[in-house]
């Protein structure tokens, strides 16, 4: 790969982007470049075209999806008071895996993920399904997230940063409707560092003033954004 990049006649910064930043960001472009170098398909002319496209991408700012990392229900492990076990919700031959969080007691889960190279402002959002036959009627829900970072020689448990809460209010929905919160405010993860493990706690906060929907909701995934681009 190095020899191909060295033939690129454009901005020298692109080489640094390929070798560092984009290694954790735009994997689709990176793998396309790697494939062309390894197989020789298209030659360096095609490689240069892709590098030019990446240069334009960097110049314009990386999109939200470049640092987006979904953590699905199967990756959410019980916390102090876990939600229902993972289950498959089916309607009209469509399927989603969820964990159902109570509307009458606060339930939490743990999950972890590697902090990418080039991380910045961290945010999260929640995607899920209305699983109960009684859907919300001008009601809402609230979710919280906090965590810390562990690297080589660090303990698995340390002091979490302040919990950040995201709410989803004024909802009128039916059973099997999909819900998606807005992105949260910035999340401060204690001792965050690239390529270390972010140990995160997520919960539905039933006694938050915004959580007025009394039924369970099925959380399909918690979506992390490791570098928010406004």
Write the layout of secondary structure elements.
Elements: H1 2-6, H2 13-19, H3 27-39, H4 43-60, E1 68-72, E2 77-78, E3 87-91, E4 94-101, E5 107-114, E6 123-129, E7 139-150, E8 164-171, E9 178-180, E10 197-204, E11 217-225
Antiparallel strand pairs: 1-11, 2-5, 3-4, 4-11, 5-10, 6-9, 6-11, 7-8, 7-10
Your description of this structure?
With 230 residues, the chain is of the alpha+beta class. It folds into 2 domains: 2-62, no CATH class; 66-225, Galactose-binding domain-like (Jelly Rolls). Helices cover 19% and strands 33% of the residues. The protein has 4 helices and 11 strands. It has helices at 2-6, 13-19, 27-39, 43-60; strands at residues 68-72, 77-78, 87-91, 94-101, 107-114, 123-129, 139-150, 164-171, 178-180, 197-204, 217-225. The strands form 2 sheets. Strands 1, 3, 4, 6, 9 and 11 form a 6-stranded antiparallel beta sheet that branches. A 5-stranded antiparallel beta sheet has the order 2-5-10-7-8, with no helix packed on it. A hairpin with a 2-residue loop joins strand 3 (87-91) and strand 4. The longest helix is centred in the N-terminal third of the chain and has 18 residues, at 43-60. The radius of gyration is 21 Å and the shape is globular. It starts with a helix and ends in a 5-residue tail after the last strand. Residues 1-9 and 36-43 have low confidence and may be disordered.
């Amino acid at each position: 790969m190095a020899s191909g990049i060295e033939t690129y006649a454009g901005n020298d910064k692109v080489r640094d982007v390929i070798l560092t930043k984009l290694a954790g960001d735009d994997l689709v472009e990176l793998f396309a470049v790697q494939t062309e170098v390894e197989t020789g398909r298209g030659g360096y002319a095609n490689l240069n075209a892709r590098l030019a496209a990446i240069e334009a991408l960097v110049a314009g700012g990386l999109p939200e999806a470049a640092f987006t990392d979904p953590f699905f229900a199967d990756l959410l492990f019980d916390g102090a008071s876990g939600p229902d076990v993972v289950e498959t919700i089916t309607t009209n031959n469509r399927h989603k895996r969820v964990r159902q969080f109570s509307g009458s007691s606060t339930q939490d889960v743990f999950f972890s993920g590697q902090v990418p190279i080039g991380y910045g402002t961290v945010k999260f959002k929640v995607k899920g399904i209305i699983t109960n036959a009684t859907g919300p009627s001008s009601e809402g829900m609230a979710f919280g997230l906090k965590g810390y970072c562990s690297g080589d020689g660090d303990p698995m448990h340390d002091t979490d940063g302040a919990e950040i809460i995201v709410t989803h209010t004024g909802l009128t929905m039916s059973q099997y409707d999909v819900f998606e919160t807005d992105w949260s405010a910035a999340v401060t993860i204690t001792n965050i560092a690239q390529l270390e493990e972010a140990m995160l706690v997520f919960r539905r906060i039933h006694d938050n003033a915004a959580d007025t929907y009394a039924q369970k909701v099925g959380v399909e995934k918690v979506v992390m954004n490791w570098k928010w681009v406004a």
